Amino acid sequence: MRENSTEDDVISVTDLRVRYRGASGDAVRQMDFTVGSGEVFGFLGPSGAGKSTVQHVLTRLLRGYEGRVRVLGRPLPEWGRDYYERIGVGFELPAEFTRLTAGENLEVFASLYRGPVADPTELLDRVDLAEAAHQRLSTFSKGMRMRLSLARALLNHPSLLFLDEPTSGQDPVRAALLREVVRAEADRGTTVFLTTHDMHTAEHLCDRVAFVVDGRIAAIDTPDGFRRRYGRPGVVAEYTVGGRPRRRIFDLTDLSTGGELSGLVSSGAVTALHTREATLDDVFAAVTEVRL
């Protein structure tokens, strides 16, 4: 777990505060965090916790804030239009031209950059849209639009990538594919700032995770660190009572202390046993006090 900011940090946020006009309280309160080069940094928390507000500050969509924000080696206010040459943005509600095809959309967005861009055809292939390259976006499903949004975010070879729910609307196979695409970008040195409610994506993709509650960061750690600190591993038992099947999670200590699970095993009622590892779902519930 990283504690202090350094000159090598891609993002450094100190005492960030945001209050919307007319609001009685701050949407973001005294927030501090850093993100290192090539890191996939997850920003997790319940709806309304302040995640989108922070992302809007970092993408310069929201400029009314207090505190110090430094991105890509410069104070954020010092950046001009060249900032958007360096970052890629893929939000959950993507912007697009629905009367154009997928390929035409990428060509239009590619024309907005002054620097070199990726090959739209190759990008469409990476996100499993090669066969839909000549299909109008008006016919796309939500999942297809989200994959196109990721492709568009990668057009300019960004140094910093902002993603909001990148696996939304995907089946398990395509969700895994998109996680592989994002991980490959990070392995090449791209820093990724990821907001999501998908604990599976956060657990398997993020190097570190910040849990946001009521406009503050409640805790930051690696997924494995969180599991050790907050997780509650157990044993899942499937058994029968009165001829009816039952399934229940027992604490690991139950086996060694002669508890209820031991009694079920001794009676022959148990039909299956397997371990249940702690997950970020457990951590989310513990840190945010929100039941999933």
Describe the structure.
- The chain is an alpha/beta fold and 292 residues long.
- The chain folds into 2 domains: 11-228, P-loop containing nucleotide triphosphate hydrolases (Rossmann fold, 3-Layer(aba) Sandwich), CATH 3.40.50.300; 234-276.
- 32% of the residues lie in helices and 27% in strands.
- The chain is built from 11 helices and 13 strands.
- It has helices spanning 51-58, 83-86, 102-110, 120-126, 142-153, 172-187, 199-205, 223-230, 253-256, 260-267, 280-288, and strands at residues 11-18, 28-35, 40-44, 66-71, 74-75, 87-90, 160-164, 191-195, 208-213, 216-221, 234-241, 244-251, 270-276.
- A 6-stranded mixed sheet has the order 6-7-8-3-9-10, with helices on both faces. Strands 2-1-4-5 form a 4-stranded antiparallel sheet, with helices on one face.
- A hairpin with a 2-residue loop joins strand 9 (208-213) and strand 10.
- Helix 4 packs across helix 5 (142-153).
- The protein is globular and about 75 Å long.
